[in-house]
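Question (not urgent): is this output format expected?
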Amino acid sequence: MERKASEMGMNRTGTMAHPVKSKETIEGSEKYAPDIPGGASVMAKARQDFAREAGNLGTVPPPNLKGMAKAAMALLKGGRATVFVDKLGQRAGFERTGARLYELALSKLDVFGTWEGGPSREQLEKIRLDELRHFALVKRTLEKLGADPTALTPAAELQANLSEGVPRVMADPHVNLLQSLEGLMTAELVDNASWELLIELARELGHTEIAEDFQRALDAEQEHLALVRAWLAAGTKLEARVGGEAAGAPA
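Got this back:
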């Protein structure tokens, strides 16, 4: 099924397509003042007041009895166990979402097919399983620390809010496989950076074995990012070629 990401057509969103109406719109904006006086400074002041009055985004639940001693030891070492648990909760949610992103990519592959240098079903499926394994790893780690792996920590909620656009875009039926890779690359960049931070925190808290497990997860995530970048580059270059469709350009 052919659907190029950069298709030429009747796009009416630009002002150059409607010079008369555009001029009238600009003149109207200059003629009529906003309903709320004060401009941007008033809005900034209101945001500052809301920020002072609002509570935290969420809290990290205390560890269960089994994990209390481990948490206390981490604090005695000068570390903040709550920060580590918070970031682990963030990772758990993100890895679970990551598996769903690759499920969405697989559905795009079924509709649009791939291209020379593009992803195969086997590759996408392997990465999906990697993401599920990483979720299971984080879940086990939280349980070892006496934390609740089902809790939505502040960092987890923040990450969910920040990244909610990626799954929405990838689920959009207008978006093809090549465009979906933009979403995957965004997710993989965040994933890599987040695993790096977790490894640093684990080492600072003295969790050597956990840090080693996380390093193996990061190694896999770095491979994911390299693959997505290569697929995206190959597909984009094919679309840029004259007569790219006939040469196996992405659908």
